[in-house]
Amino acid sequence: MFSHMSEQWLLLLILLVSTAFVFTTNVILRKETGIPGPRGWPVIGHLPLLHRKKIVHQTLMNLAQKYGPLYELRLGMLKVLVISSPDLAKEILKIQDASFADRPFTIIGELIGYQRKDIIFSPTDDHWRFMRKLGSEFMSSKAIQKQQDLLIAGIDSTSITIEFGMAELMRNPDVKEKLVKELDELVGRERLVEESDLVNLKYLKMVIKETFRLHPPVPVLLPRKSMEPATVAGYKVPKNLQVLINSDAIQRSPESWDDPTSFRPERFANNPVDVKGQDFCLLPFGAGRRQCPGMGIGGLMVEITLATFLQILEFSLPAGLKPEDVDMTAEAAMTSALVSPLLVSVKPRLSPKLCSMRTSGRTFQRSYVLTWNIIQVETGFGDKI
């Protein structure tokens, strides 16, 4: 009996000492770095703030409004630096890119990244450099033209962007009509839109940029890890600190965008901001040496798919559904899709030959593979899809 009670007291003592050690260590580290942040719980830190029922990027955005564009969280024993402004994103992704180029170990990287051997989740080592070089050749414009049909089924973020783009067009019918008018004037109704047409479809590009801005497929960029001690915004950042960049917060910041929560493609009419990682207020693909290697194929497929859908089909909301009724709620996940499938009615705009769901050209077949599974459709073809 006495021995059993002694073991219980010993376990309790170990727990108390461990808790005190973790708490004291984090207080000391917080004083050393001076980085602001909310007060966390002993041992578990700030994990309760990020439980699965909450949308993580929105929680991080709310914390940034209170603690500033740079703050620190502790997730158990893991310390994380959160970045929420274009200037600080540029500091991490460009100016000090070499210091923050590593990827931390994650379970998801082990599970879907071939034990962290793929180009996305691999640590920054010789293997990653080889994969990056190989990926650059494979994802070149010439290679993309040869491999489009093979690559397209694996691009999850592309279908998410198309889904949100279609949803925004249903919510903003004036934008949809303007885009359809551009397609009719520049491409016509006698043939399907081709990749060579995209360079002339300026309004289409504005619509897609605005979709990327309001609905980044990965709202919080994949984490980076400091490879050496660094200084960011005057704060000392130790080696091996994980860094999260909240691209959703950056792209909705009133400091960078007028009326940031409204869907206004015209904001890009005289604005040279692009999505290629050179403008740090718009980062759907990230930036720097760990930028998404599929940026080229992803952007191309969003453009050609959305253009093809709007050219050959007339989309409208089902009877009784108003534009403001379209649910834009996003999932609480790493890639943030719509919670509720988009419901639309369609009827053909072009000739039966071009509009045929079974015999259309390669362009629409690609669109069908990518996107038709994410939109519930009432058709005018006489068939249910």
From TrEMBL:
<keyword id="KW-0408">Iron</keyword>
<dbReference type="InterPro" id="IPR002401">
    <property type="entry name" value="Cyt_P450_E_grp-I"/>
</dbReference>
<keyword id="KW-0503">Monooxygenase</keyword>
<dbReference type="InterPro" id="IPR001128">
    <property type="entry name" value="Cyt_P450"/>
</dbReference>
<feature type="binding site" description="axial binding residue">
    <location>
        <position position="292"/>
    </location>
    <ligand>
        <name>heme</name>
    </ligand>
</feature>
<dbReference type="GO" id="GO:0020037">
    <property type="term" value="F:heme binding"/>
</dbReference>
<dbReference type="Pfam" id="PF00067">
    <property type="entry name" value="p450"/>
</dbReference>
<keyword id="KW-0479">Metal-binding</keyword>
<keyword id="KW-0732">Signal</keyword>
<keyword id="KW-0560">Oxidoreductase</keyword>
<dbReference type="InterPro" id="IPR017972">
    <property type="entry name" value="Cyt_P450_CS"/>
</dbReference>
<dbReference type="GO" id="GO:0005506">
    <property type="term" value="F:iron ion binding"/>
</dbReference>
<dbReference type="InterPro" id="IPR036396">
    <property type="entry name" value="Cyt_P450_sf"/>
</dbReference>
<dbReference type="GO" id="GO:0004497">
    <property type="term" value="F:monooxygenase activity"/>
</dbReference>
<dbReference type="GO" id="GO:0044550">
    <property type="term" value="P:secondary metabolite biosynthetic process"/>
</dbReference>
<feature type="signal peptide">
    <location>
        <begin position="1"/>
        <end position="24"/>
    </location>
</feature>
<protein>
    <recommendedName>
        <fullName>Cytochrome P450</fullName>
    </recommendedName>
</protein>
<dbReference type="GO" id="GO:0016705">
    <property type="term" value="F:oxidoreductase activity, acting on paired donors, with incorporation or reduction of molecular oxygen"/>
</dbReference>
<keyword id="KW-0349">Heme</keyword>
<comment type="similarity">
    <text>Belongs to the cytochrome P450 family.</text>
</comment>
